Amino acid sequence: MTAHPPGPFWTGRASNRVQWLLAAAGVACLALGIELAVDNAWTSGFVPLLMAVAGCLAAGLLILYGTLAFVHVAVTIDSETLSVRCGHIGLPRRTIRLTEVTSAEFLPRITPQQWGGWGYRWRPEKGTAVIVRRGEGLELRLGDGKLFTVTVDDAEDAVRVIRTHLRTLAR
Questions:
Q1: In 3-state terms, what secondary structure has residue 109?
Q2: For site-directed labelling of 45, which of 64, 133, 134, 146 has its Cα 20 to 30 A away?
Q3: Model confidence at 4: pLDDT above 60
Q4: Helix (H) or strand (E) holding 105
Q5: Same domain, 58 and 81
Q6: Domain that holds residue 39
């Protein structure tokens, strides 16, 4: 059992089942690459075969990681930090010290289109974000003026917890 710092502790997550379909496409690319490597009846020569196998395997791995990393996101807030972990292995990961946060806002409607798709995103006018699905999320304004946004269920409650910690830190 882990001890949590004093004060409200909050955890939340968001999931995207559509990402599993994209992961299946990655598996299909991997399977095609393996099939090509095993059944090498290509008459065009070794180099085209090697390029096709390497291309399929690389595309499959990239698609698979890119989708599985953003199937879900887990957000944890304690009295000192907000931590974001993506996917099954927790990467990418971002930890923001609450002493760096100047404000927190609840956003009821975030869409992947606003950020250019799913994943870990950066837009000059918006800052960085972890977008795993459309829907509610939270936005932090950091002391350096940058923004950090994450889609997470029950984001309104998360914002309340962050604001409580920010008031405590301001004392």
A1: strand
A2: 64
A3: no
A4: strand 101-110
A5: no
A6: 18-68
Q: How many domains does the chain have?
A: 2
pTM tops 0.85: no
CA distances from 39 to 26, 49, 56, 98, 107 (A): 20, 10, 14, 56, 52
Half-sphere exposure of 14 (CA within 13 A, CB side): 23
Fill in the DSSP letter of residue 99: G
CA–CA separation, 152 and 135 (whole Å):
8
Looking at 27, 45, 68, the residue that finishes a domain is 68
Question: Average pLDDT of 106-123?
Answer: 93
Q: How far apart are the C-alpha atoms of 106 and 121, rounded to whole Å?
A: 19
Does 113 have pLDDT greater than 70? yes
Rounded Cα–Cα distance for residues 110 and 148 (Å): 13
Is the pLDDT reported for residue 33 higher than 70?
yes
Residue positions counted in the chain? 171
